[in-house]
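INFO  loader      accepted 1 record
INFO  loader      residues=161
INFO  predictor   begin
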Amino acid sequence: MSWFDWTLVRENADLFRFTSNAIAFRRAHPALRRRWHVTGNAHGRLFPDVSWHGVHAWTPDWSPHSRLIAVMFHAAGEETGEQSGADDCVYVAANSHWEGHELELPELPDHLAWHGFADTGAEPPHDIAEPGTERPLADQRHVHIGPRSVVVLLAGPREKE
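INFO  predictor   done
INFO  writer      dumping tokens
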């Protein structure tokens, strides 16, 4: 049991909305709820279960002066427990630098596209989407991450042209 002052929800509506959507997003994505530790191996999957990235896809900068890191979590269709058997792929980038950066995104198969879920550098209500309403990125090769912010993307079905 815990004490929660529900009168503060109205005063902090943007924070409550953001947190509620983040919790629902985690619940909706098996790649973020594993029962075992990730290994970084692909094991015949589309991508490794975890991979690290920097300004360039697949190339993290582990140097002491680096202020940016991105991670991609992937769960193969048979691991997701989804009836569709679809893969689940979530990309999270964190920038602690005082300048924004353009990040090169990992290339997805033709049937998938990167969709934006959260961007803590954006103003509410554009900082987060409700799970299931994420919109495809206009640029599928790069994403901008603002200073001292986090961007969360997911690989979803490509819209038919």
